[in-house]
Structure formats: C-alpha cells, structure tokens
Amino acid sequence: MGTQNLTGEMFAQMVQNGAANLRNNAQTVNDLNVFPIPDGDTGDNMCRTIEGGASVANAEGDVPVSEVCSKVAEGMLLSARGNSGVILSQFFEGINLGMKDFETADVKAVAEAFRAGVKQAYSSVITPTEGTILTVMREATDVATSKITEDSTLEQFFKAYIKEMYLSLDRTPELLPVLKEAGVIDSGGAGFSFIIEGMYKALKGEEITSDKMITTVSAEAPIGNFDENTEMEFGYCTEALVQLRSEKTDVEAFSVDALIEYLESIGGDSIVAFKTGTKVKLHVHTFTPDKVLAFCLTFGEFITVKIENMSIQHSETTVENRFERKEVVSNERKKFGVVAVAGGDGLKEMFTSLGADAIVDGQQTMNPSSEDFIKAFDAVNADTIIVLPNNSNILLAAKQAGELYKDSDIRVVESTTIAEGYAALTMLDLTSEDIDVIIDDLKMAIGGVTTGLVTYAVRDTSQDGFEIKKDDWLGFSKKTILSVEKDKVSAATALLDSIDKTGKEVIIAIAGKDATAEELSAVHEYASKNFPLVEFYEVDGGQDIYSFIFAVE
C-alpha cells in the first residue's frame, strides 16, 4: 500500500533527504563543468541553496504541508547562489504557490504543484535555454503527471518522475552542443536529479546521512575594528543544524526542551531551537559558543555550523592585507548607492576607490547568495541602488535579491565580468540624478570593453579546435578559448594577440594571487613592444582562479 497524501512532516523530511543526497554528491556535480577550468561550483551552489530550505523545514506533528513549503521556499530564495541555485529556489517557490492552503496534498495536487514549480523556474530566466536544469524539470514533470491515475500513489509518481528525469538528463548534450563537445551532461540537471532521488528515498523510508559538513564561515571573514584591546560586548551569534545520532541519544524520544534549558543556563538569549525529523536546528546569542557545540555533540553530529562575532557585526568592516578598504554602514539615507561584486583584496579596494559603497564577496567558486546582496542593500541605505554582479553566474542571484528587497529601487546592471564592472565604475556619473541616463551610460561602458582571462586546465579535453591537456594554461574571451600554452605568460600574450584591438586604446591587466611581479612585467613588456598605440596599465587584483584578467577598451 503506497502513500496517498503528502503531509508537512513528510515534505520536510523529503527536502532534508534531498539536501543530504546532493551534499554527498556535490563534487560530482562540480566536476561536470563544461569549461575545463577550476571554477566548477554548481554542486556547491545548489547544495547551499537547498540547505537554506532544509534547515528551516520545521514540521513536527500536524503542521500543514503549505506551511512547510512556505518556509522551505523562503529559506531557499534567500540562500540561492549561482544560476542553477536561483532556478532551483524558484522551482520550490512555485511548489509553495501550488501548495497554498493545503493541509495535505494528494498525488494530483503534488503534480500540479510541480507544474507550478516548472512554470516559476522558467519565468525566472529571461531567455530559457533548453538542455539545462529547466528541461529536466519540465520533461520529468510532464511525463510523471501524464501517468497519474485515480489509484496512483506518491511513490509511483516519483518513480515515474525519476525514470524520465534521468532520460532527460542523458538527452541534454543533444540539446546543447557545448555539453556534447565537452562530453558532459548538464550540471544543474544533475544536481536537481540528486535532490529528487533523495526526496524519493525519504518517501520510501530511507534516510540519507552525510558526513560532509558545510560551514558558512567565510574564508575572508571581516575582522573589523576588533583587536587585542576590543571589549567583547555582544557575544557570538551561533547557529547549527545537528543530525541526531542513535548511538548518542534516543532519537524518537529526543526533546529540545533540555537543549533550550541548557542554553538558558549558560546565559544564552535569542534562543530558537526545534526538532524536525531526526535533525535539530538551533540559534542562540552566547559568549561561550564552545559550550554550545560541546553540548550538541552529546546527542548528535553537526551538518552545518555558523559562528559570527556580533561585536564585529556592530562595527565598521575593515579588510587589511596588501590593501586597505573601509566599508561603513550608512546611517544617512542617500539618493544613490552602488553595490559591486568582487573577490580578492585588490579588486575590492579598486572597486571601492571607484565609487562602490558596498562590496559583496564574490570569489569565483564562492558565489554570493541573494541574502548577501540584501545585507549589502541594507548597509548602503539609498533610495536607488545600482548593482554590478560582475559574473554571469551571479546575475540571477542579484536580480532575485532585487525583487525580494522592498526598501530601495534596485537596478541590476548586467555586468558579467570583473573587467565590465571596472569599465562601468570608471564611467559612473551620478550628477544628472536621472537613473535611466546613469544606467544607459554604464551599459555603454560595458559594451565597449572586451574581457580576456587566463587560467589553467583541470582536465584533458578538446574545445574550440584545441587539444587541451590537464595543467595547460588557457587564454579565453566570452567562453571561447583563444590560446593554449605551457606557461601563463605565453597564454596571456597569445590571448592579447588574438583579441581584436581595433579602436581600443587601453589594456588594463589585473594580476591574480598567483601572478608574480616578473610575470606581470613580462606581459607588460610584450604589450608595449607589440601594441605601441595602446596604453597598458597594471592592477594588483589578488583574485583566485584567474592569473590575469584583461580589460581591453
């Protein structure tokens, strides 16, 4: 006898199981990157997106499925990272809309909610591309829905869904030539498949566990004004998602009451703790996070942990390394503000000096979430905020944040590279106070720049007429490989040779973390000798992944 109705508790368990299954396979999804360079992060982006929903899926007892769907969707919308992550969050937002007011949902209602999810996901992309996660969602939903009868169970629906889902995933290279050339299936579709597979297993009573803990502490956490003499005034905001373990506690009988009592006994405040399925979600402000973590280990293991020093959160942010940058939360409302995405201290300093009011950390393999943008919007405190995402894979998250944010007029300028963002900021002129004129000027600046990138290959492949070996150095522009060499300087100079410089007057070379002064000097010398009519400027960007970023304008 199968399951006829989906309950709130069941849906929460399914989402958590889907998240765990993706977490266990995130690297597999990352490795499906079409371009053979070290920026494959689709699996990580999708994992962090669904974790945002799984961590707030609270459904003990008779909680309506509509209520759980709402919480999951809201958590995912805020946590959404990367294009596939945003599309995934919109799919679950569509399910939320389809489940509105349902206490429980039968198979037909679930199918209709999935249809609403597909519609919502497609609407989130201006020009939907087939052969991607969108196709996998649509085709699996259509086929599984068409097979529903009066006697269908949820297990039968998901079994049909998964069968078509994998057939659709296998067809993605036939729809996208770039996938076929690279010899991979669509990474976003693969990530989605792991989630649905995990959800189906939960429906059958199979709980997926994961020993891969995701921490949300930034690799470049701001230290602010906090030094050896700073008074610890506010304590730590401590959050965790804990997997209960049967060898440590009675999972079924476990109650959060003892946890709440303990957190209160150590002086914790702003306490939120609840159990959902076999997991516990907690939030507490405390001066002793070590005691919180130690107590949690008495009954389970951590899935995610986040600890933030609130004394830093209440002060200005200062990043000091090779560069100095200050970002101050504005108390005075202003007419215009600018938020830009950048990774690497040099790039952050450069964008700040050019007029950005807030920088969203956007390392190539650490895409920011929609919530990261929202926090930046709050900090800027302006009537109109111009956003420069500076990465094609961050664009949708920025737009989604703009739609969610209601306190300012958010204008996302579609800069897809750091070079385009640099060009836009150099042309930033707010004196007209006409936002449409300002945006048009920024778009014109972006249209006049060509971006060149240099990095290394992470696998053997054939692409754009080149036979590429692992560890070769690649020069490319607009996802087209233009040079393949055995060292980064040769790749950089060959790339500059290949870029059309007709009408161009300036080359800005932004050096990455691994580029030495000697290598930058060699590129400068080559450009001066071979392109004497073009000015050459150097910037120490300090970015990961790309040894050189060229802005040719």
Mean pLDDT: 88
Tally the beta strands.
21
- Overall geometry comes to globular
What number of domains?
A: 4
Determine the N-to-C terminus distance: 67 Å
CATH top-level class of the largest domain: Mainly Alpha
Biggest sheet architecture: 6 strands, mixed
Structural class: alpha/beta
The CATH topology of the largest domain comes to: Serine Threonine Protein Phosphatase 5, Tetratricopeptide repeat
Question: Radius of gyration over alpha carbons?
Answer: 25 Å
- Spell out the CATH superfamily of the largest domain: DhaL domain
Low-confidence stretches: 213-224, 313-328
Q: What fraction strand?
A: 15-25%
Q: Tell me the CATH architecture of the largest domain.
A: Alpha Horseshoe
Strands in their spatial order, largest beta sheet: 18-17-14-21-19-20
Instruction: Count up the helices.
Output: 20
Share in helix = 40-55%
